[in-house]
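Example 4.3 (complexes with small molecules)
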Amino acid sequence: MQIVPTKVVWMDGKLVPWDQATIHVASHVIHYASSVFSGGRCYRRANGDPVGFRLYDHAKRLVDSCKLTLMADQLPYSVDDIYHAIIQTIEANGLVPCYIRPVIYRGYGELGVMSRNCPVNMFILIQDWGSYLGDRPARVMVSSRRRPRSDSMFMGAKTGANYQPGQYMKNLATMLGFDEAIALTEDGLVSEGSGENIFMVRDGVLYTPDLASSVLGGIMRDTVITLARDLGIEVREQRIPPEFLYTSDEVFFTGSAAEITPIGLVDTTPIDQTPGNITTLIRRSLFGIINGPDVEGQPGWMTRHGGWLTSLNLATE
Ligand code: PMP
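Answer. The structure with 4'-deoxy-4'-aminopyridoxal-5'-phosphate bound is encoded below.
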């Protein structure tokens, strides 16, 4: 998806015009990928109201990623500050629906691998971003690249550096005519897509790799597990052999960008039910909450309160 300039970018506490939102080439992040990020969505409900989906959880995971990269003690913002900065950025741009990309990174200080003497900077930009993998079932390949183990890199952190194998997988998959690739763990078990978690349905039971399978703890993954259990569907988070990818009744990706995307083909094997009944049930439940206005999901999932909502309505009318 091509980037389209918006009015402003939030940078280190200020709203900066799009063209001035730049960083210096000497910044540590350019040389050593010293960044963490997140990506959430703000929707517009059927009745016109803007709603942020699990934005507080995105801010919290961002701070957790800072802990895992030894940036948290130098980060001048709390989870609350980041959450409010996200809302301020959406409000200032008046762009709903939108995808929100906060990035925390090591800025301009010293050259060399040691980054503790480089400042911890942050920006937030938003974009009008449609469905990440398109509207038809995804065609995926199983990659020859493995997701590293968390004793090499913390795979539960959302760091820029963790996306190196992912970029290779995704680029090669699209060059070969697939939409996305799935990585296995270093033990050869199912892990996740380059930008999504993965679920499989077998005989009415929903499976997803456990958090020790080198996956990112996706906010949509957690949402889907919660919604499935609410629907009375049995969910198993466990180690998963790669055979499941080819022989499950339903397979789908989850992510804040990808939402719930059915998978129709793995390498050369078509998946029997695409989208299957359980995928459709969970999707309906998710969009019931997003579209509202009467269903809310779990406490704290939706941002739709106070002046923010009012001024956003004004800004987008
Ligand atoms: N795994 C990876 C590697 C991702 O990049 C993403 C997208 N952030 C996910 C899983 C899904 O995470 P979430 O549901 O929080 O968007």
